[in-house]
Design brief:
Number of domains: 1
Number of helices: 2
Order of helices and strands: HEEEHEEEEE
Structural class: mainly beta
Distance between the termini: 34 Å
Strand order of the largest sheet: 1-2-3-4-5-6-7-8
Radius of gyration: 22 Å
Shape: elongated
CATH class: Mainly Beta
Largest sheet: 8 strands, antiparallel, barrel
Number of strands: 8
Length: 225
C-alpha cells in the first residue's frame, strides 16, 4: 500500500514537471510615452526596444509569463498637438529597464501540438518593476543632478499569437503601462523648469512582434478556468 501511494505521488509529480509545455521568446518593437512632454498618442512607437520572456502554459487558456525588457523612451514638444507644448519646446530621453510577472488569458484554447488550436487573441495582465533616471536635484545655477529610481507599473496588454512551423510561433502585442510616477520626462513641481500643462502620472507603452519557441512534452494540462 505504501509503495502504491509513493508511486502515485511520483507519477503525479512527473506529470506536473514534464507534462507541461514551456515557451521562451524574444520581442522586437518600439516604445512610446505619454506624459507632460510631446505627443499624447497611446500607440505611437518611436524608439527601438525589446525584451526576452519565459512562459509556463498552465492550461490551454492560461499562461504565466516573466519578462525582462529594455525600453528607451523620448518626447519632444515640437511633435505635440497643442500650441502650449509646441511653444514651450521641451524634449527629453530616458531609458527604462523592466522586469514583469503576469498572466496571459487566451480567448480560445491554444496548443500548437494540436491541429485546430494553433492561434488565439489574448489579454495580458502584469505587475512590473522598472528602473529609470530622474532629476534628484536641480542647483540654483540650473544644473540637473541625475539619479536612478525603481518604481512599479500596472501593465495591461492585448495580443495575437499563432503557430509558425514545428515548435515555433509568433505573437503581435501592445502593452500599456500606467506608472505611479510623474518624472519619467524629468518634469516635476520640484525642479526649476516646472511648466506643465496638467499634472498626471506618466505612461509608457511597448508594441512589438515576438518569436516564440515551445518545448517540453505534449501538454498534459491542469483542468480549470
Amino acid at each position: 500500500m505504501k509503495k502504491s501511494i509513493l508511486f502515485i505521488v511520483f507519477f503525479s509529480l512527473s506529470a506536473i514537471m514534464f507534462g507541461q509545455v514551456y515557451e521562451i521568446g524574444v520581442s522586437l518593437g518600439g516604445t512610446n510615452y505619454v506624459g507632460d512632454v510631446g505627443r499624447t498618442n497611446y500607440i505611437y512607437p518611436n524608439q527601438l526596444a525589446g525584451n526576452a520572456f519565459f512562459k509556463y502554459n498552465y492550461n490551454p487558456r492560461i499562461a504565466f509569463k516573466g519578462t525582462l525588457s529594455y525600453l528607451p523612451i523620448k518626447g519632444n514638444d515640437k511633435n505635440a498637438d497643442t500650441d502650449f507644448r509646441r511653444n514651450r519646446g521641451l524634449n527629453f530621453t530616458n531609458t527604462i529597464g523592466e522586469i514583469a510577472l503576469g498572466m496571459e488569458f487566451n480567448f480560445y484554447e491554444y496548443d500548437i501540438s494540436s491541429e485546430n488550436k494553433t492561434w488565439t487573441p489574448y489579454i495580458l495582465i502584469e505587475l512590473a518593476a522598472f528602473n529609470y533616471s530622474y532629476i534628484r536635484e536641480q542647483t540654483t545655477a540650473g544644473e540637473d543632478l541625475f539619479d536612478k529610481k525603481t518604481s512599479f507599473a500596472i501593465p495591461i496588454g492585448l495580443g495575437f499569437k499563432s503557430k509558425l512551423s514545428g515548435n515555433f510561433a509568433f505573437s503581435i502585442e501592445s502593452k500599456f503601462r500606467y506608472t505611479f510616477e510623474d518624472d519619467l520626462d524629468y518634469l516635476t513641481e520640484d525642479n526649476l523648469n516646472y511648466n506643465i500643462e496638467g499634472n498626471s502620472n506618466d505612461w509608457y507603452m511597448f508594441t512589438g512582434v515576438s518569436l516564440i519557441y515551445t518545448f517540453g512534452r505534449p501538454a498534459c494540462y491542469t483542468q480549470g478556468f
